[in-house]
Amino acid sequence: MVRMSRAESQAQTRKHLIETAQRMLLAQGYAATSLEAIADEAGFSKGAVYSNFKNKDALCREVLRHIRADHAAALVTEVSSATSFQELLDSFAAWSERTIGDQKWSTLEAEFAVRASADELLRQQLSSDAAEIRRVITQLVSAATESYDLELDMPAGDVATALLSLGIGLGLQRAIDPSVSAQILTDTIRAMLVRKMSPAS
């Protein structure tokens, strides 16, 4: 049996800690989940947690980054086969209904954001994460306008900020009331893009 290198072993430990923390944080919330409990559940010492993450904030931030990355990958898969703007919207709508407003995810995001409001360093880190999300959305919006001959009446970055803000608010509403439809987000995209479609398209 080939022995793992130290780096491989640490990477595996880190991955297992993130997976365990994700299950527990989503189930119990940030405040109710301790590093000790995560370490016990994962089968590691508390020292093993601290050798991979500075504190619970760092671990929770990494968990949320992984959750967002998984949802983003699912979205890319969902829309990748679209051959028209309408198909793109339909695929996005299907993803939105499944994803936006996930109660446990939305609650954890909200709880962690409140936590960050009392910690300047953490607030800056979450601000950086949000900026990266806006950057990715900006790229997607720009790619869509180019692929489907659309025009924007505001910078793509502003569109990205508007869509992210609407998505966050809609997610919180749907977490409280699942009967609220996510269709409004798709309709907003259509309103911002389709009404500016060039005559040639």
TrEMBL record:
GO terms for molecular function: DNA binding. Keywords: DNA-binding, Transcription, Transcription regulation. Residues 34-53 bind DNA. Residues 11-71 form the HTH tetR-type domain. The keyword Mitochondrion does not apply. SUPFAM superfamilies: Homeodomain-like, Tetracyclin repressor-like, C-terminal domain. InterPro entries: Homeodomain-like_sf, HTH_TetR, Tet_transcr_reg_TetR-rel_C_sf. PANTHER family: HTH-TYPE TRANSCRIPTIONAL REPRESSOR NEMR, TRANSCRIPTIONAL REGULATORY PROTEIN. This is AcrR family transcriptional regulator.
